[in-house]
Amino acid sequence: MYDFLKAAHDGIRWIVVLMAVIVLVKTLIGWLGNQDYTKLDRQLWLGLVNSAAIQFLLGLVLIIWLPFNYNVGFSDTIFRVGLEHAVTNIIAVGILMYAARFKKLSDVLQHRNKFFAVLISALLIYVAVSRVGGWPWA
Question: What is the per-residue DSSP string for 74-117?
Fold first, then answer.
């Protein structure tokens, strides 16, 4: 079961990456083009936040399950690296969740603020996934 959840966690990562790229481009265009914040923008944002939340929950289950599945202690390197990965991603998802509060701002400010929230989150996610060797090019 652990291996299935890990495979799901590895696969959903690409959905999060794809959604982050789409939202980054869309919010940048909306910000620089002084566009309205539309229903499509809300749906894309919701897709990103939901995919990141699902990824977060799968990761949480995996990090809790890791010591029982592989008989590693809390001081072992594999657990420590996994915990660093988890904490970095918790911060990244927290930034995305916080950015949902920007809905009361003007449309241009919503685009701008969400662009920077996604950019910072994407950079944190990149670092966290690199830490566990999860990118095929790294």
Answer: TTSHHHHHHHHHHHHHHHHHHHHHHHGGGGGS-HHHHHHHHHHH
Report the number of distinct structural domains present in the chain.
Answer: 1
CA–CA distance, 36 with 30 (Å, rounded to integer) = 7
Among 130, 105, 125, smallest CA distance to 19 is for 125
Question: What is the 8-class DSSP label of residue 47?
Answer: H
In a domain, 136, yes or no: no
Residue 138: inside a domain, yes or no?
no
- Segments forming the whole domain that contains residue 83: 2-131
Does residue 68 belong to any structural domain of this protein?
A: yes
Q: Convert the pLDDT of each residue in 68-108 to its tens digit.
A: 766 666 567 777 787 888 899 999 999 999 998 888 899 99
Domain annotation covers residue 137: no
- In 3D, which of 8, 116, 96 has the Cα closest to residue 50? 96
Say how far apart CA 74 and CA 67 lie, in whole Å: 7
pTM for the whole structure: 0.87
